[in-house]
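Chapter summary example: a protein plus fe (ii) ion.
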Amino acid sequence: MAGLTRRELILAAAAMGATWACAGPRSLRSRSSWVERRDLFAEGVASGDPAPDSVLLWTRASSGGSEASVALTVEMAEDPEFERVVATAPTVALLAADHTCRVLVTGLQPARTYWYRFLDASGHGSRIGRTRTAPADDDPRPVRFAFVSCQNICEGAQNAYRRMIFEDERAAPDDQLAFVLHLGDFVYEVVDYPEEAPGGHRYDRRLRDAVRFPDGEKIAGFHVAASLADYRALYRAYLRDPDIQDARARLPFVPMWDNHEFSWQGWQSFQVFEGKARPAQTIKVASNQAWFEYQPARVRHAGGPSLERFEPPPVRDAPIERFDEQGLGQEPNNLAALGSLTTYRTLRWGRFLELLITDQHTYRGEVPDAREEARPLRSDAFPQLVPEEMMEILDAGRAYAGGRPPETVRYGDAQVPNFRKDEAPQAILGAEQKPWFLDRLRASNATWKVWGNSQGTLDGRADPQNLPPGLGKPWPGAGYACFGGGGDWSTAYTERGEVYETVRDAGITGFVTVSGDRHSFWAGLAAKSLPPAAFEPVGAAFITGSVSAPGLVEALEHRFPTEHPLSALFMTEVGGRKQPMVNLLMHHGVRSCLEYQRTGDAERARRASNPDLAPHLSFLDMGGHGYATLRLTAEAAECEFVCIPRPLERSPGGDGGPLRYRVVHRVPLWRPGERPRLEQRILEGDPGLAI
Ligand SMILES: [Fe+2]
């Protein structure tokens, strides 16, 4: 609300109905007869998207039943005892919003901690939440925040949040977290029901009976959310997890979705199962509605400024066949579904931080190498590996090689027509979001421009061209291999290049990307290309491990065939136990893997590193879980990875259990024309093959 005149404020408040409260100049002792009844507010409380003078508060009246609306009161205070209440206002939880409730409290002081609670007409109250406003734009104090992604309550425990809360409660005031940036996969819409899985397990995970869809659809072996009621059921189940709920009650969240808030392999309004895309505009709208209802975020919905309820546009699942230049499906129901909720936005914290958050799924084009036509371009002889030059052709489309794309794409003996040769380059951000993002990046005067990006930007690749003869088949590519195919920024070379060229050409410094999605910890430098092309970093990039969802190392432990000729590159036994060789493969290359397999000596393995493979990487752990924090000052950005053991069961203590390691990467602020660099410190534990 910053910047509005008083008249505008009143008008905005009127438009928002019972979802606005303004803090008064004086604080008074609470006059309510609040008695905590967590059972009546079973999903807890939350706050989100703080500004210097305002914050959004959230709860759900969980015993609303069939009542069209439940009258509530919100109280906000400067102290947890509510002796100094600064705002009291009536509000409402509507059945049309699944009895969720959002209130924007304005008139607050910057950089302050506040406490809040909701009460019903009988004085029955929610638990007490704690939140913090953002500092004023010129505030010179350091800022520190956490970033997380990928929590799955059906397959693991949310110990990462418990550890985060434990550490934050004990941190010095300057080091306490300002907020939690949630980069998506807050829920997983694909669920394995325990009774249908062998032994009730997936990988190492005991499947919990935490989510049952009232509607649901069984597809590709999973139960999949198929209605608004299903998505709502998901959020309700996740928010009843004590660690997730406690984290939202202690810290403001800044939420952004990734893929699983809608559909695992979905893009725009398409769901994709077993390689087949189908239009799902109704599901896209349902998932947007549930997200709006359950996430405390200042976002735009097509229904106007109301915070009370989402207004779902009427859509049907119609074929999407016409696409514009950026790959956006022009079918009216698709456009209406995508336009029903707009979540990309910026937030500002003091002098040092501008957070630019983008949406990677709503506007993106189809993943080019996931297309039917690309099927022959894979081989079991080289699992996960795709020739880099092939991916560059598929990414760039008609823009390849300055507008001279090849007629065919080859992979060993296979050759397919270049189905991308007349199409536009792969777009993730899309025609409206990209210029918005680049403009905001150029305009920011914060020291650190942090790109909150649900998908990882750091290239993952391998050097199978360096395999010794006789180890499996000869590599059919011309040089390096991309790891795992396309779909995220690591192979969206054209659009990523455009972002990085903007950073370079505008002389932007302090550019840092924070991401999730990959279920693994990565630290490195942002560069549009790697050797043998020029390596010219323009910023730093960090990716956080999953809170709890299984990662690649766990999948390889269970699924990678031990007799595969390339097992030394992925997962093999060294020194009597299975080792995550894939960490070495992507960071140091095949020669390091083979050296480690031969000697079991990590130092010797790193000396065999291929320096051209990953000059952008400082750290890579494809098996890490936990969370990350970023601390920003005038001099440096410091990213801390807090890695916990595989979270199979809830840790019984209040500290979230032991740590595997704590690693800090420090990026001194660079001047225009200087090259950013990372300094690594291992503070606790042993990251093993991750360095
Ligand atoms: Fe995920």
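Key point: Residues 1-15 have pLDDT under 50 and may be disordered.
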